[in-house]
Design goal:
heterodimer; A: 414 residues; four-stranded parallel β-sheet; 8 strands; 10% strand; globular; B: 259 residues; alpha/beta; Nucleotidyltransferase, domain 5; 2 domains; five-stranded mixed β-sheet
């Protein structure tokens, strides 16, 4: 067959700044873990990072490390080690790959950063179960291993309207973390410092939202695959000026792209929404395939999940509670469907790719008829890709490739 | 459309189990060929090309379009284009049944349900999950476990009188269930029919299968009793094209002619 046109992923210049930020982040953590000061707190990706940062902790996010394990494809080699000690192949593959890699004394950090040989040992581990119950099990394994306190927030699930009951419940749990955290850090919480951290976090969130919304432009200046990379500061550095500076730089670059009509996907003809987790070990393959198909995945629930427009420095505890309860992942299906409907309209989406992630039911939304309901109501076509975030044993390259290609053929038909 | 010396199109469906070819021109189909795909997709495709050109007397230079489809579609270096089997099956079926139809294709490695509108546009499609339960690969596994030539399965299933069912979803577990049936002395035809029912269950749980339903694929071509079991399960007629195994190749050839 005549060779298809060779396509290249258009690079984002700001990535250089991000790489430096991430390097500094991991070196800071590594140094703190080695020297014992400042104290290291592990935090789930949508955990109370603002509180931890305001109390002087340097904050490490194991889910970020999980994504690195997936993207580096260490995960598939590491997961069996966790399976062997009783963590099921059906359990969260961030957790199993992270624990497995630890058992194998491996981390992608040591490949990326000279001198770092291990993940940073925690002084305290703080979870919010808004992602799943697995994060609590995950942190508990390390807590037991290092004999460190594991504390956290148990979230509500199936939340329709976010009410004062929800907000009071979660805010109370966040406030209850202060005493044990003070015991670890040895310092008292400074409420003004918390307000300032929440202010910075909100500003980061607003900029990240603006970054993602640039993809509403035709052609879109960035793709979902770009956003999975560039979301890192919004996850691990929210609450710092560094993240704000970074997103100002990235936003300026994307605005220039828009002004110059520079497309992330050359000759963009179809626009898709990605619902569910990324397939970290196949990001590049998928990004390239969509480029070849002149199809831009313009938006995703996943990248949007680090937008917290409810954060309010005037009311830090309650606004954190509200922001972390308004998350897509903990809401009812009707709320999720209204949200997806808004996204489809805003981004001008032609179709939806649902990722059925084998080990991540909480981030999988095609198990209870949602694709069919959305298609019936909005006449938006969809496909479901079977796969996983980290465990490539659950992913069939050829089947996914065929489905995506067939979907693009379907949508390209006038 | 009118035929001229070069107005020929070849569709090559390089599937997981078999490679199928259909050579046609605007007047109709001139030749068909089928080979096992084996470990060399390109070789199987070349063999099908040679067979169809030899059978029809059409020279390669007079074939204006060669459309490859199926899992090995990118391995056919002499193809002019590659199109997925989902699009090709839809096109091939609609040519035979020009109505709104729901197509069920049971292939060697995967099952597809494709919804086509009354104007021939594809509305939707689904593929089985990564698991091969209910596909041709499942039937091959069962034949191996029963130590029975695969081509004898259909007649065996037809001779069964009972209504045994397998409960397991998973192919491996289903094979374990077969062991249990064998251990209990269950007659071979009943076991085969139970395995075929398992294929049917995997199909009907993929989609509501609304409207006119068409079945295609090599599994159907060689095991027509599965069509009867589907008919029984859904309670209405199931349409089958005359050459169900060649539907993808036929659609590919038609798309080539139209390009």
């Amino acid at each position: 067959m005549a060779d298809a046109k060779v396509v290249k992923i258009r690079k984002i210049a700001a990535a250089k700044t991000m790489r430096k930020l991430m390097a500094d982040h991991f070196y800071e953590l590594d140094q703190a873990a080695k020297e014992g000061q400042p104290k290291v707190a592990w935090c789930t990706s949508v955990g109370p990072a603002e509180l931890l940062r305001a109390m002087g902790f340097v904050v490490y996010f194991p889910e970020n490390h999980g994504a690195m394990l997936g993207a580096s494809r260490i995960a598939t080699e590491a997961i069996p080690a966790a399976n062997a000690i009783g963590y099921s192949p059906d359990a969260c593959s961030y957790m199993t790959s992270d624990i497995g890699a630890f058992l194998q004394n491996r981390t992608p950090l040591s490949d990326a950063y000279d001198g770092i040989t291990a993940i940073p040992r925690p002084d305290v581990l703080v979870y919010n179960t808004n992602q799943c119950r697995d994060v609590q099990d995950w942190f508990s394994w390390y807590g037991d291993h290092w004999k460190k306190p594991v504390i956290g927030i148990s979230c509500y699930r199936g939340v329709g309207d976010v009410t004062e009951v929800h907000v009071n419940g979660i805010a109370g749990q966040i406030e209850a973390l202060v005493d044990p955290l003070e015991a670890v850090s040895g310092t008292k919480l400074d409420i003004d410092r918390l307000r300032e951290t929440v202010r910075l976090s909100r500003q980061c969130s607003d900029l990240w939202k603006e970054v993602l919304e640039t993809a509403a432009t035709r052609p879109a200046p960035l793709t979902f695959f770009d956003s999975t990379i560039h979301m890192a500061p919004a996850v691990v550095l929210r609450g710092t000026q560094l993240a704000i500076d970074y997103y100002n730089e990235l936003l300026a670059e994307l605005k220039t792209r828009i002004a110059d009509r520079v497309a992330a996907v050359e000759s963009e003809r179809t626009r898709l929404y990605w619902e569910g987790m990324p397939v970290w070990g196949r990001l590049r393959d998928l990004a390239t395939q969509f480029l070849e198909l002149q199809t831009c995945v313009v938006a995703s629930t996943y990248a949007n999940s680090w937008i917290f427009t409810d954060l309010d420095p005037a009311d830090p505890f309650r606004s954190m509670a509200r922001a972390y309860t308004k998350l897509f992942i903990v809401r009812t299906d009707p709320v999720k469907e209204r949200y997806l409907s808004d996204m489809i309209d805003f981004f001008g989406v032609d179709g939806i790719v649902f990722h059925d992630a084998k080990t991540c039911p909480n981030n999988t939304n095609c198990h209870h008829g949602m694709p069919q309901r959305i298609a019936d109501r909005l006449d938006v076509p969809w496909i479901t890709i079977s796969g996983d975030l980290n465990d490539l044993r659950c992913y069939s390259d050829e089947q996914a490739r065929t489905q995506i290609e067939a979907f693009a053929e379907q949508l390209a038909t006038p | 459309m009118s035929s001229d010396a070069s107005n020929h199109s070849l569709g090559l469906d390089v599937g997981a189990a078999a490679t199928k070819a259909v050579l046609l021109n605007p007047d109709g189909v001139l030749a068909r060929a089928v080979r096992k795909s084996g470990a060399h997709f390109a070789s199987a495709a070349s063999a099908c090309l040679e067979e169809t050109t030899a059978a029809s007397g059409i020279r390669l230079e007079n074939i204006q379009s060669i459309v490859a489809t199926g899992y090995g579609r990118r391995n056919v270096d002499f193809a002019t284009t590659a199109i997925t089997e989902i699009t090709c099956h839809a096109r091939g079926c609609y040519e035979t049944f020009p109505h709104a139809i729901t197509i069920v294709d049971i292939g060697g490695q995967d099952n597809k349900v494709i919804s086509v509108t009354d104007t021939g546009d594809r509305r939707n499609f689904k593929m089985n999950r990564k698991c091969a339960a209910g596909t041709g690969a499942f039937i091959e596994e069962i034949a191996g476990r029963l130590d029975t030539p695969i081509e004898q399965l259909d007649n065996l299933a037809r001779s069964a009188t009972g209504n045994l069912e397998l409960g397991s979803f998973c192919t491996v577990f289903a094979k374990t269930e077969l062991l249990s049936l064998i251990a209990h002395g269950t007659p071979l035809p009943e076991i085969v029919k139970a395995a075929f029912r398992s294929v049917v269950k995997r199909i009907i749980e993929m989609d509501p299968l609304a409207g006119r339903m068409v079945m295609t694929g090599g599994v159907i071509a060689h095991n027509t009793s599965i069509v009867d079991l589907v008919t029984e399960a859904i309670g209405r007629e199931v349409l089958v094209p005359k050459h169900p195994q060649f539907t993808g190749a036929y659609g590919a050839a038609l798309l080539g002619l139209e390009s």
